[in-house]
Amino acid sequence: MNILVIDDDPAYISLIGRAFDRLGGHSTVLAVDSASGLEMIGDTPPDLLILDWLMPRMSGVDILMELERRPRSRRPGYVVMITAAPDIDLLRAIALEIGADEVVSKPLTEPMVAELAERARAGLALQA
């Protein structure tokens, strides 16, 4: 599975990247800002996109709205929005409305990363 993680906290995305590496069977790319992350999606979108909600300049919501304007073949297969915000229920409703498949509270632990990978695999299988 090809995975792209976009978060403006380098230490945090490194932690997520290491967790996916330990799971094996994944190609994980990390982006520390939204502009480079959006560029990395390009014409070959990842199977799984893990996207921080709040980032400078371009938020995760902005990225999702940009992706929704693209043809389905140029959008990630499964999108997980991550957030440290306390009102996750409101954020979940917004994110799901604009194209996220799920919303998860930070911090992500290694078991949560493994679970996300499994849910993404299941979600991708349903889309096939």
Write the layout of secondary structure elements.
Blueprint: E1 2-6, H1 10-23, E2 27-31, H2 34-41, E3 48-52, H3 60-68, E4 78-83, H4 88-97, E5 102-105, H5 110-127
What do these coordinates show?
- The protein is about 45% helix and about 20% strand.
- The chain has about 130 residues and is an alpha/beta fold.
- The protein has one domain (about 1-125): 3-Layer(aba) Sandwich (Rossmann fold).
- Strands 2-1-3-4-5 form a five-stranded parallel sheet, with helices on both faces.
- Strand 3 (about 50), helix 3 and strand 4 (about 80-85) form a beta-alpha-beta unit.
- Helix 1 (about 10-25) crosses helix 5 (about 110-125).
- The longest helix is centred in the last third of the chain and has 18 residues, at about 110-125.
Q: Name the strands of the widest sheet in spatial order.
A: 2-1-3-4-5
CATH architecture: 3-Layer(aba) Sandwich
What amount of the residues lies in strands? 15-25%
Class based on secondary structure composition and strand pairing:
alpha/beta
Q: Give the proportion of residues in helices.
A: 40-55%
In short:
The protein is an alpha/beta fold and 128 residues long. It has helices spanning 10-23, 34-41, 60-68, 88-97, 110-127, and strands spanning 2-6, 27-31, 48-52, 78-83, 102-105.
Question: Main traits of this protein?
Answer:
Rossmann fold; 5 strands; globular; five-stranded parallel β-sheet; 46% helix; 5 helices
